[in-house]
Amino acid sequence: MTLTFFWIFGVVAMGGGLLCITRKSPVASALWLVVTLFALAAMYVLLDAQFIAVLQVLVYAGAIMVLFLFVIMLLNLGRPGPTDIKGPVGIGLAALLGGTLLLQLRVLGHAAPPAAIQLPEGTMATLQQQGMIAAVARPLFDAYLIPFEITSLLLLAAIVGAVVLAKRKL
Amino acid sequence: MLLGPALGISAVLFTLGVAGVLLRRNAIVIFMCVELMLNAVNLTFIALAQRLGVGGQVFVFFVMAVAAAEAAVGLAIILAVYRHRQTVNLQDINLLKG
Lengths: 170, 98
Fold this sequence. Notes:
The structure holds 2 protein chains of 2 kinds. By secondary structure, chain A is mainly α.
């Protein structure tokens, strides 16, 4: 049952991605990408990552895609113009690289994950006891404290950089 | 048991992202394809986190933060370029091309 739903959302995600890279209008591309992001959020739920699924909807489908649509609107790119898909060279290159990547999938298909990578004993019981959010949040302030603080610096730098870049005159 | 399908779907999504970057000329669409690739990698992290512990989910959290920062700065750069050249077509933006 879970597997069926997983495949349904997977097909939706892949279809959305395909339509995203082939639509002429940037607005249509952005909206198909939102479909993909929502399907991915559903897959995260099926993979026991509820907190990340909520973040996916809030941050990706909410904030980042609104930013994209806002810039498309600001630059007035919404009207469908002549297609911007590259000529035969671009299509050939994309098909070649895509084919190579997909061929490598076949190797991945019959690779079994080594038995050594297994959850430590009792992890699942602890998870069920303290809940998923605590399980994700605790390492953030514990083992990953320094990366977490660096992320805040990165976001600050991004805010300042975006303002400086987008401003006409400082 | 969902690991195999998840890795497969993630690989297909990543391939679509790469193909999009190579195929399109519109800077904003290329940007969206980069986001698609980041999401494909996130799916891999989540699928393996189910088996290896929540470290992968913490990493996805960081990837999302970096993606947000990247989107903000990248779109600001696109705005600045558009103001100079009145286009987001990467074929016409070739000032660095000697």
